[in-house]
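WP5 quarterly update. Target: GNAT family protein. Source organism: Amycolatopsis ultiminotia. Length: 184 aa.
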Amino acid sequence: MDAHRGSDGPAGRAVVELRPARESDLDLLEALTNDPGTVGEYQWFGWHDPGYVRRRWQDSGLLTTDGGMLVPTLDGRPLGLVSWHRTRTGPHAYCWNIGMVLLPEARGHGLGAEAQRQLVRYLFAHTQFNRVEASTEVHNRAEQRSLEKAGFTREGILRGFDFRDGEWRDHVLYSVVRADLTAD
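Structure tokens (predicted):
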């Protein structure tokens, strides 16, 4: 798979490149999924199997027909990870559900919005699904702004949607459909 490079876009927008994970990324990806100090407040869901990411990379390179994981980079430096998985939307229809975790030093600079924008374009260019969705906790204002900057539309609140840090959390649901890209 070729890397997907962000467009130059409006002045000031960072050029983010998405690429497949490399063996040299595995320690970073493990930290982004299993280290509370690296993942941040809204992504820490407790300890899990420490070999999971490495085994998935060995089995599939973290890319399957049902989902995957790519590494967003800026000037060759990894920024974190973006991921997606197939979600059923009807008896015969599916969409992509995406997620992202950035390194602490990459947060707050607009890089996440650009990485999510590039992931949406990548998924629409290489799959036939019509919808990409994402959700975030209602108190995660930074991620809500990131999704909106990436072109997602806020759809509503998912009550009691996720369990983190001892309590059920409400989420805000966002989506992009193919027609949204042609409207740009």
